[in-house]
């Protein structure tokens, strides 16, 4: 029996390749922000524990102050890929979301609580109080949200368990079990957090508001963390890929795009190795330079793009092996509307970039005054 609900008879209003491209661009940005949150937050918590070290506290405060802003980007950059994913994969994604509905809807509450805890964490640190428990609680909740997202994104690929889950609970009260890809995939995201969080510290080390000693400290800690977790991230990536079904593995190694972005064509693999080397120079040499700072930003962004493309391949090939071809949809492109959308999209990205630069500038002024 074909397990997916009937396709919507209304054709898609834009070419599938365009929707996929927009999905990958926006999801890569969401992942950069998610990794900054997951890695940066725990680093800030750990640094805040070393209350005897002034540099450590300065670094913890610098990261913590940025957390609420990062969270804004996590949320706002999560909405567009959710919309694009629903357009392309709605029949699978809506089904899995309903099957774990109670957990899925609970994300809104957990997210709100996490956000509040982030403000508390920053406030306590600024006031010179102990803040590790508040920060750690926020991190645990964010990690749980990540787990729920991984659960749904893998459940949507398993139509064979839907009927049984629905029979067990029509209330969406159960989380899916028995998927060997779920935990490696989630751990891959968590490990990536420390790689990106460390690279973020390498970038921050160039800030002129730090003293020379603080700069070397921030570059040293960030670089070492990124170099170490880059290796763990690589191992988690190999693990997550190795537990995919054979049909998916074969498809990933034969399609040019996934070869190029993933392991076989060394896309993601090479980028992570470059990130580790760059981080090692900053971390072990305690080197502070604009080249390293901007190199860290570039390699972090490219790594997330390569990862997102490869991950997209895992989904498309898994669904294809179960009869769902994402390219098999009626399309009636309304180019006028697509044109207006693209203009607004590019303008929106420009505004986001401008907002980031204004916030960064304001933080510099505030930190300078502090
Ligand atoms: C603390 C907050 C959040 C964290 C830690 C987080 C983390 C993650 C993680 C780890 C994944 C990858 C799951 C996987 O494939 O294994 C993911 C995917 C995703 N997230 Fe978030 N997320 C957060 C908030 C949000 C919000 C608020 C939205 C939307 C409003 C969102 C939208 C998405 C979407 C749409 C995907 C997957 C899209 C796709 O596969 O096509 N996220 N997120």
Which characteristics define this entry?
about 375 residues, mainly alpha, binds protoporphyrin IX containing FE
Average per-residue pLDDT, rounded, comes to 94
Task: Describe the sheet with the most strands.
Answer: none
Cα-atom radius of gyration: 21 Å
Secondary-structure-derived class: mainly alpha
Query: What low-confidence regions span 5 or more consecutive residues with pLDDT below 50?
Result: none
Number of helices: 13
Bound molecules: protoporphyrin IX containing FE
Helix content: over 70%
Global geometry = globular
Extended strand count = 0
What is the N-to-C order of secondary-structure elements (H for helix, E for strand)?
HHHHHHHHHHHHH
N/C terminus separation: 65 Å
Beta-strand content: under 5%
What would you say this structure looks like, in words?
Helix 1 (16-49) packs antiparallel against helix 5 (132-155) and helix 9 packs across helix 12 (290-321). With 370 residues, the chain is mostly helical. The chain is 78% helix and 0% strand. The chain has 13 helices and no strands. It starts with 15 loop residues before the first helix and ends with a helix. The longest helix is centred in the last third of the chain and has 35 residues, at 335-369. The protein has helices at residues 16-49, 54-76, 79-99, 101-126, 132-155, 162-168, 182-204, 212-242, 246-254, 256-261, 267-285, 290-321, 335-369. The radius of gyration is 21 Å and the shape is globular. The protein binds protoporphyrin IX containing FE.
